[in-house]
């Protein structure tokens, strides 16, 4: 297995990052997670645009070349030669002492692993989710400071749930590793304020409008979530996953609804053609 550090390919067992790197010391970095479909990197340009936005939001540098990183990603995917790949691109402020201004030299690490697909039954039956009364810091930035996500994932695992959904002051936000959607009376709703605007989230909204589904972006309460007709989550690596239960309550009839299934079919067609 090969990884890419600052554009140079190296075997994973020999890859090294300094203990003085800001990403290691302070969680001072940003990242993107991507995957391939048919060996082709999915939505690469959009992911790089969001990565650049995160870099600039943290004022890490005035000089950022997403095209160069795209080339490094393609090179690393090709070198590893997996059937399908899961890709993580991480950019940190590098070795910058105690200075949190512009980076003297950012560190860019690209890790490509063989993609482990979810069991097909998960997409057919749906998953359980739980709510947690926590929030992420700077949710619009895909930061490597993932302690809230870590704690939420631990809570979900203890409760035997697939996902933990962040709720802030009673308002539903997003999953620990996903965006959240619900359907009520034929209308597709998804939070927009205080969430990371996922790449797959954007594609699902586009597909929904193409299918003629009425879409509304905005906040809704946990009570409204409990009373939804359908609920699903989205992520780049996992696609669209139906949710059959939130906390102790069943969603709808406990099976994926028609809008969810239609969107899953449209998403499958989009990623395989």
In short:
The protein is an alpha+beta fold and 273 residues long.
Structural write-up:
- The chain is 31% helix and 30% strand.
- It is of the alpha+beta class and 273 residues long.
- The mean pLDDT is 96.
- Average pLDDT level: 96
Counting DSSP H or I runs of 4 or more residues, the number of helices is 8
Low-confidence stretches: none
**Major β-sheet, in short?**
9 strands, mixed
Strand content: 25-35%
Number of strands: 15
* Proportion of residues in helical segments: 25-40%
**CA-based gyration radius:** 19 Å
Q: What order do the helices and strands follow? A: EEHEEHHEEHEHEEEEHEHEEEH
Shape: globular
Could you tell me how far the N terminus lies from the C terminus, measured between alpha carbons in angstroms? 29 Å
Give the tags.
single chain; 273 residues; alpha+beta; 9-stranded mixed beta sheet; 6-stranded antiparallel beta sheet; 8 helices; 31% helix; globular
Describe the secondary-structure layout:
Blueprint: E1 2-5, E2 8-11, H1 22-26, E3 29-37, E4 40-41, H2 44-57, H3 66-80, E5 85-92, E6 107-114, H4 120-125, E7 127-132, H5 147-158, E8 163-168, E9 171-175, E10 179-184, E11 187-190, H6 199-210, E12 214-217, H7 222-226, E13 230-235, E14 239-246, E15 249-250, H8 258-272
Parallel strand pairs: 7-8, 7-14, 11-12
Antiparallel strand pairs: 1-2, 1-6, 3-4, 3-5, 5-6, 8-9, 10-11, 10-13, 13-14, 14-15
């Amino acid at each position: 297995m090969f990884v890419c550090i600052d554009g140079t390919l190296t075997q994973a067992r020999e890859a090294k990052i300094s203990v003085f790197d800001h990403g290691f010391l302070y969680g001072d970095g940003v990242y993107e997670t991507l995957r391939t479909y048919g060996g082709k990197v999915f939505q690469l340009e959009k992911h790089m645009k969001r990565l650049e936005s995160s870099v600039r939001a943290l004022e890490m540098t005035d000089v950022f070349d997403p095209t160069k990183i795209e080339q490094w990603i393609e090179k690393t995917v090709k070198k590893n030669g997996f059937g399908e790949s899961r890709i993580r691109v991480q950019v940190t402020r590098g070795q910058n002492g105690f200075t949190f201004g512009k980076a003297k030299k950012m560190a860019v690490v690209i890790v490509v692993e063989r993609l482990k697909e979810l069991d097909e039954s998960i997409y057919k039956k749906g998953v359980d989710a739980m709510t947690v009364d926590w929030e992420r810091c700077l949710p619009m930035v895909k930061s490597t400071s993932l302690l809230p996500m870590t704690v939420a994932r631990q809570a979900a695992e203890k409760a035997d749930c697939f996902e933990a959904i962040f709720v802030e002051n009673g308002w539903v936000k997003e999953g620990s590793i996903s965006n959240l959607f619900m359907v009520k009376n034929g209308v597709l709703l998804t939070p927009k304020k205080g969430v990371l605007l996922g790449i797959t989230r954007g594609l699902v909204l586009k597909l929904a409008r193409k299918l003629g589904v009425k879409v509304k972006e905005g906040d809704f309460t946990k009570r409204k979530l409990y009373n939804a007709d359908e609920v699903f989550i989205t992520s780049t690596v996992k696609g669209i996953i139906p949710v059959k239960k939130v906390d102790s309550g069943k969603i709808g009839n406990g099976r994926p609804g028609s809008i969810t299934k239609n969107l899953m079919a449209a998403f499958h067609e989009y990623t395989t053609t």
